[in-house]
């Protein structure tokens, strides 16, 4: 393959290969390998509680046997409704070791949101944080979930911190209430730590999953806004972890990665759960992003690599500079999920002396498919260039078989070993995004881009109307469907508006009042949405309009709504 075929190869950092050999192994192979090669190396640091690679692999084997004893079998879907913690890592790999399928869920989701995803996946077992247990149990009658296993997050803390939670002081009570929650009387649940501590190790001869087996169902709105489970096989996730290792050229058993991105999000899952384990990194796990916690960890265990979203980098750079925290150990960082402002990259690199680059991907690509080179050739403001073994083409959105000339706008199509096989039990949606062209399977991203010199990709617009706020996807149709049930609202269009501060975009609802209603308050709308939506999906602003612009067939033109709101200032 020549530079004429793939012009971006000339921008690769020295040592990054154009292609990788296919890897015929399951995700669990990397963990088993790291445990054998580096048994005493710290794999996880959760709030100061350390787990070595040998201990992590041993816990995974005991957890796998515990799950097998309660009925989990190969191909079963197991829902994980957990924040970042050591148990999340153990449960993730234990499910995979059995040949079962992980289904990741946001633990802040409402019962309605969880019910849809749990029912759609057909999950029969759910491993759930105590705080999320009420929502899961409320959703359970509408799903196939038979067994709920609850996790006490405080059991992952160092013993001294766990003991301090019982002190009769306000700080201890506040932290305890944030990490734990009482269960309803009569709730039929099992206890994770009790099950795992009582279980033997899974027999060594228990069949391993294959590269072709499904590893993960990751829910995404795709191009329609209706949440669907992206089918990611072991080979997809292994390929993306290997691509990341080749791209960063990080040294095995020498990196320390800050895991503030949520594991239930595709970005955090790959960078902090699969890629990190593949290179035997020490993963410093944060239950949620907190500037002070990250800086405290930096003093205790200096990070060398930090994946995040732009607001994280901006806040950390500002705080580190103000507090005099040495961040120069952090040589590399990668930003995703939203556009990286040039000033944020500059501030981070000034504080660390390292490199911050932007990457691009989708849940359907495991998730990373483009990235800026980890070198001085990086280009701020660009999504980057294709990863090793990946391809791209830019096409006419109305006829994706027709490529547009270089430098012109078109829809981005991508291909590679990390690209998914389709949506779980949604063949029509799969057919809409996966195309066979010239003997290769291409994914329609729904993003409008321009490919410029040396193959660098610049994002121009989104065909998809997904709102990206704080790194999370908000699907306008879901918010609209809920708000239309509010008696004061006659009609509504929900759009994302730039200028959401740390959020990137803010969710704005354009509302047509119901007949006879003269006013509706934002607080009332948010109180209504809190019943069934995650906090980040709530409207942050309202605009009252006499009517909504529509197409000739009656479809609300969200793009026009957005333009009208922006023009109002």
Automatic annotation (TrEMBL):
Residues 31-424 form the AMP-dependent synthetase/ligase domain. Keywords: Ligase. GO terms for molecular function: acid-thiol ligase activity. Gene3D superfamilies: 3.30.300.30, N-terminal domain of ligase-like. Residues 479-555 form the AMP-binding enzyme C-terminal domain. PROSITE patterns: AMP_BINDING. It comes from the Bacteria. PANTHER family: LONG-CHAIN-FATTY-ACID--COA LIGASE, NONRIBOSOMAL PEPTIDE SYNTHASE PES1 (EUROFUNG)-RELATED. This is Long-chain-fatty-acid--CoA ligase. It comes from Actinotalea fermentans. The lineage of its organism: Bacteria, Bacillati, Actinomycetota, Actinomycetes, Micrococcales.
């Amino acid at each position: 393959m020549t530079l004429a075929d793939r012009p971006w190869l000339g921008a690769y950092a020295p040592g990054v290969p154009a292609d990788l050999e296919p890897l015929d192994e399951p995700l669990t192979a990397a963990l088993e390998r790291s445990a054998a090669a580096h048994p005493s190396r710290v794999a996880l640091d959760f709030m100061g509680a350390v787990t070595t690679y040998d201990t992590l692999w041993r816990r995974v084997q005991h957890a796998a046997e515990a799950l097998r004893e309660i009925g989990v079998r190969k191909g079963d879907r197991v829902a994980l409704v957990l924040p970042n913690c050591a148990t999340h890592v153990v449960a993730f790999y234990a499910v995979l070791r059995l040949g079962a399928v992980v289904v990741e869920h946001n633990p802040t989701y409402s019962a309605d949101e969880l019910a849809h995803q749990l029912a759609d996946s057909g999950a029969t077992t759910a491993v759930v944080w105590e705080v999320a247990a009420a929502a899961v149990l409320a959703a359970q009658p509408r799903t196939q979930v038979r067994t709920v296993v609850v996790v006490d997050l405080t059991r992952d803390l160092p013993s001294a911190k766990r003991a301090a939670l019982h002190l009769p002081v306000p700080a201890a009570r506040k932290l305890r209430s944030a990490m734990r929650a009482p269960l309803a009387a009569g709730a039929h649940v099992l206890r994770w730590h009790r099950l795992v501590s009582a279980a033997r190790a899974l027999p060594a001869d228990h069949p391993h999953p294959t590269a072709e087996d499904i590893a993960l169902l990751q829910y995404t709105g795709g191009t329609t806004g209706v949440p669907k489970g992206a089918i990611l096989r072991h080979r997809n996730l292994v390929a993306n972890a290997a691509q990341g290792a080749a791209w960063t050229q990080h040294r095995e058993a020498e990196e320390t990665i800050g895991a503030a991105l949520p594991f239930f999000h595709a970005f955090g899952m790959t960078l902090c759960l699969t890629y990190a384990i593949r290179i035997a990194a020490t993963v410093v796990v944060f239950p949620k992003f907190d500037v002070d916690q990250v800086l405290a960890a930096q003093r205790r265990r200096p990070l060398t690599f930090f994946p995040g979203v732009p607001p994280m980098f901006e806040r950390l750079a500002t705080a580190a500079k103000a507090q005099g925290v040495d961040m120069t150990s952090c040589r590399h960082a990668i930003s995703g999920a939203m556009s990286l402002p040039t000033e944020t990259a500059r501030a981070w690199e000034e504080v660390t002396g390292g490199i911050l680059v932007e990457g691009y991907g989708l849940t359907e690509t495991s998730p990373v498919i483009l990235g800026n080179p980890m070198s001085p050739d990086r280009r701020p403001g660009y999504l980057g260039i294709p990863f090793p073994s990946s391809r791209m083409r830019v096409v006419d959105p109305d006829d994706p078989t027709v490529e547009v000339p270089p430098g012109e706008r078109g829809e981005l199509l991508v291909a590679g070993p990390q690209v998914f096989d389709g949506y779980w039990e949604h063949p029509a949606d799969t057919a809409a995004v996966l195309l066979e062209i010239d003997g290769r399977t291409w994914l329609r991203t729904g993003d409008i881009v321009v490919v410029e010199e040396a193959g660098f990709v610049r994002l121009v617009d989104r065909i998809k109307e997904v709102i990206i706020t704080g790194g999370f996807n908000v699907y306008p149709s879901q918010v609209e469907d809920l708000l239309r049930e509010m008696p004061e609202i006659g009609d509504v269009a929900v759009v994302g508006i730039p200028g959401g501060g740390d959020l990137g975009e803010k969710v704005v609802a354009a509302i047509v009042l119901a007949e006879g209603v003269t006013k509706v308050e934002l607080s009332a709308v948010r109180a209504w949405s809190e019943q069934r939506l995650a906090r980040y999906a709530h409207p942050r602003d309202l605009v009252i309009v006499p009517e909504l612009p529509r197409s000739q067939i009656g479809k609300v033109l969200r793009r026009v709504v957005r333009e009208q709101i922006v023009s109002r200032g």
